[in-house]
Specification:
The complex is a heterodimer of chains A (182) and B (228).
Chain A: H1 13-29, E1 52-56, H2 59-83, E2 87-88, E3 95-96, E4 106-111, E5 117-122, E6 127-131, E7 136-140, E8 144-152, E9 160-161, E10 165-167, E11 171-181
Parallel strand pairs in A: 2-9, 4-11
Antiparallel strand pairs in A: 3-11, 4-7, 5-6, 5-8, 8-9, 8-10
Chain B: E1 3-10, E2 35-43, H1 48-64, E3 68-69, H2 72-79, H3 86-89, H4 93-103, E4 107-116, E5 119-129, E6 133-135, E7 139-143, H5 145-159, E8 166-171, E9 177-180, E10 183-185, E11 191-194, E12 197-204, E13 211-217, E14 222-227
Parallel strand pairs in B: 2-3, 2-4, 8-14
Antiparallel strand pairs in B: 4-5, 5-6, 5-7, 8-11, 9-10, 9-12, 12-13
Classes of the chains: A alpha+beta (182), B alpha+beta (228).
Chain lengths: 182, 228
């Protein structure tokens, strides 16, 4: 014989519904009925909009982003060389260029040795230039004061360190590295 | 035999001198050039000239192609930052992505340089950083210093032109979230990368209504989003 299971009855559902209806009618009579005249929900305060300026990065910003930190790194290296054994690099000499006095200074480097050469310009537009043996290179730098360091790719040579070369707009400079036996 | 280096300095230079292209002459207010970074892993590590020369020839070729190149010391410092080995970083997409973000350079040239006497060897690969990091197969260049100098430019000229990725540089309140074409985009070191073409961009910040706009990535440009 099977036992029949019954779901438990809700406690007096009819009574509850009746009470609810009576309460709603009472509230409506008191003017608080919300069913027929709904009160609009109060809007949440709007988030202030994000204000965004979208534009292209300029060439000046691009250079500045890289050069400022590069200048610090190169200056640290130059200072480290200065503290150790080194030769003195004589100051650069300049002469005005004929065509464009407003152009940026240009430095031509000639490596007349049989070794690789690395030249460091520590200043407002820092630069590291590497030249193969017997190679030449011309570099445009922005005007300003530069410490120049040259290092040959051969053990036994101390680096050469200059101090405070002022490079001016419209000027050209040249430096040639030669080896002379002692 | 120890010799000494003598220096001859003259102030005169002909105007027709060969110049290093793209070094600093771009007018200030023009849009920035596409940015590339040259990541050099040199063996032996202590060879300053090897590293500088490998960088120099690669950077010169990139400038000829119209790129702004992140400078040597800055790049080297990022590449060898705490926990990074230049050689290992070249094989690690996550490391490449981080270095690219720190330098704002979605185009990377990965160089492995070795030298034994007069014999040089350069392994060149290019990487584009967008949603993924895509790296080309290596091209080997061997020979003397002159061979290396002549060999780099043609390789890069073949691999790099075309659609370049762009950079979105973001400044503003903390916890900014960038969405590109509906997908959240990772922002690292204040920068995100997007591929060529037209995009819908959305910038969100907690407690603020999002900003929505459009941008077109072409020519490897760098966009700046300043949020307030």
């Amino acid at each position: 014989m099977r036992a029949r299971l019954k779901a438990p009855r809700a406690a007096n559902p009819g009574t509850r519904a009746g009470l609810g209806r009576a309460l709603a009618v009472t509230l409506c009579l008191l003017g608080a009925c919300t069913r027929s005249v709904p009160t609009p929900a109060r809007p949440a305060p709007a988030d202030p909009p994000l204000d965004v300026n979208l534009r292209l990065l300029t060439a000046a910003e691009q250079r500045r982003a890289h050069f400022e930190e590069e200048a610090t790194l190169v200056a640290q290296r130059v200072e480290a060389w200065r503290r150790h054994g080194h030769g003195e690099l004589p100051p650069l000499e300049a002469s005005p260029r004929e065509s464009d006095a407003a152009s940026w200074p240009e430095v031509r480097i000639r490596n007349a040795t049989d070794f690789g050469l690395v030249v460091w310009f520590s200043g407002p537009c820092p630069r590291t230039v590497a030249l193969a043996p017997r190679a030449e290179h011309a570099e445009e730098l922005c005007a300003g004061n530069y410490d120049v360091v040259a290092e040959l790719d051969e053990p036994g040579f101390d680096p050469f360190v200059g101090r405070g070369d002022e490079l001016e707009d419209g000027a050209a400079y040249q430096v040639t590295f030669l080896l002379r036996p002692r | 035999m120890k010799a000494r280096v003598a220096l001859a300095l003259t102030g005169l230079l002909a105007l027709a001198a060969h110049r290093s292209p793209g070094s600093a002459e771009r007018p200030d207010e023009e849009p920035a050039l596409p940015t590339a970074a040259v990541l050099v892993a040199a063996t032996p590590v202590s060879d300053v000239f090897l590293r500088a020369y490998a960088f120099e020839v690669t950077a010169t070729a990139l400038k000829e192609l119209g790129f702004h190149v992140a400078p040597l010391q800055l790049t080297a410092s990022r590449l060898s930052a705490a926990g990074r080995s230049p050689g290992a970083c070249q094989e690690d997409a996550e490391c490449l992505r981080e270095v690219a973000a720190e330098l704002g350079a979605p185009t990377l040239v990965l160089v492995r340089a070795t030298k034994s006497g007069e014999a040089w060897q350069l392994g060149l690969r290019t990487s584009r950083v967008e949603v993924d990091v895509v790296t080309s197969a290596p091209t080997e260049i061997e020979g003397t210093v002159s061979d290396i100098f002549a060999g780099v430019a043609p390789v890069l000229a073949e691999e790099l032109p075309g659609d370049l990725p762009c950079v979105v540089q973001i400044e503003g309140p903390a916890e900014l979230q960038l969405r590109v074409d509906g997908d959240e985009r990772r922002v690292s070191a204040g920068r995100a990368f997007i591929g060529p073409g037209a995009h819908r961009v959305e910038l969100r910040a907690p407690g603020r209504a999002p900003w929505r706009g459009r941008l077109r990535c072409e020519g490897g440009r760098t966009f700046r989003m300043e949020a307030q």
